[in-house]
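Okay, is this right?
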Amino acid sequence: MNEPQNTADERQYFVVGNRTVQLLPLGNGGMEILKLDWDTGKFMPGADYLPKVMFGKDEVEKVSEDEFIQQTEQMRRELFKGDNAVFTLYKLLDTIEATAKQEGRLLTAEEQGIIALTQRKTYAMFEKECRLNENYCRK
């Protein structure tokens, strides 16, 4: 595991097992810990993950913001279905990946770029657009 930096003014991103966890600096010098909630796809307080992030070994990986977003969006795509703009974009990503798989090839650089940009967009949209049991639910 990469050791977390001792900087209280930067967000830090981790993957613990398959769960994404973020450490957010607070204005008072403290830190908020948020974990991806398997039931909603949103982030919830995750103080129970602090020891894992700080002292975990094999199952903890410090990642970049981009890797964090990719992992979060992959989990959301796998766990949830819905009828809103976010899930329309998820279907586009599924189509891109399925086409490459059907053609027996890896994703092109252009496809990888489209996926990364789209995931950044869906990540930003999820909290605003998605309302559990109204326009999305767990698969």
